[in-house]
Amino acid sequence: MIELFQFTRDETPMKKRMFRLLLAASVFVTFAANAATAQVPEIRLARQFSMGYLQFNVMEHQQLIEKHARALGIPEVKVSWLTFNGPAAVNDALLSGQIDIAAGGTPGLLLLWSKTKGTPNEVRGISAMSSQPFLLNTRNPAIKTVTDLKDTDRIAVPAVKVSIQAIMLQMAAVKAFGPANYGKLDTLTVSMPPPDATIALLSGASEVNCAFSVPPFQNQQLEKAGITTVLNSYDVMEGPHSFTVAWTSARFRNSNPVLYKALMAAMQEATDIVNKDKRAAGALWISDSKSKLSLDFVFNVVAGPQVRWTMAPENTMKFARFMVTNGMLKEPPASWRDYFFPEIHSADGS
Q1: pLDDT of 271-309, one tens digit each?
Q2: Where are the alpha helices (DSSP H) in 4-161?
Q3: Greatest CA span in the chain, whole angstroms?
Q4: Antiparallel, parallel or unpaired: β 155-157 and 189-191
Q5: What letter would DSSP give residue 148?
Q6: Is 53:126 a contact under the CB 8 Å cutoff?
Q7: pTM for this structure?
Q8: How far apart are CA 207 and CA 200, in angstroms?
Q9: Angle between the 316-325 and 164-177 helix axes, to the nearest 10 degrees?
Q10: CA dist., res. 346 & res. 72, Å (int)
Q11: Phi, psi dihedral angles at 46 (to 5 degrees)
Q12: SS3 readout for 302-325
């Protein structure tokens, strides 16, 4: 508090001017403090092209972050939603401060965690979002397995070398050709957003005759006669694996502890909502993506027998160990908990 002077009639003009300056300073300090208190916190979330982010669709439509923030004493939050293609674009946006929360495949998280580990801006996972397979589809009837791929074939992936599909293709190459040949199929890949890859595959007019895609696009591809599946990622991993995960920086988490708590609560509620009513969640995805797919088709994808909507990371360490062998990570983490923040550590993850 600034203590105001009491002036008598014989006080000098100099002291009166000092009084006015101090009074003005007091008003400014009060105004600045009120403005800081009234500043609305912001959270910017990014997703990619697929049906692996249904929790985000639910959170956006039902304003779950805002709801849980209010319950925790934050009356107003500015929430923004953005869409990117591929982990490189998402991670660049996170590092440059354009977004606060990123989401994508596990390799995208691992790459950024390895790059920032031990720094004030260290990146770790928030939670998983789904476990589901992605499929390598082709229109070439001669391709039955990856060993049938020729130099003339072209495989569309969301991002060459770094997307979860590109990593999975390398893992498949190891199984087919041996560890030294993990990059044997890399020269066949081209970067293409899943919607564009689907058009290229189905049209027959593009050099792209294979697509390692994401749901629901991979399912849509199989609706056309002559399109067959060459590879299921669950077969490569010898079991289910996390498909989509969310991550952020330690700086954002530490600077916004209450908002981060609201985010976790929103993620959990959204996951529960998706599992309770997959048809309604699918309808939200259709609305957000402006898809022309039928609700029955989308529901069958969301409720597929190999699909799980869960915050628990699954088989993510297999990605980490492989990414050490192909040189993308310098050293393997000791546990999946090394690259996820503590709030999810109680989950039965792997």
Answers
A1: 999 999 999 999 999 999 899 999 999 999 999 999 999
A2: 13-38, 54-62, 64-71, 87-95, 106-116
A3: 104
A4: parallel
A5: G
A6: no
A7: 0.85
A8: 8
A9: 70
A10: 22
A11: -125, 145
A12: HCCCCCECCCCCCCHHHHHHHHHH
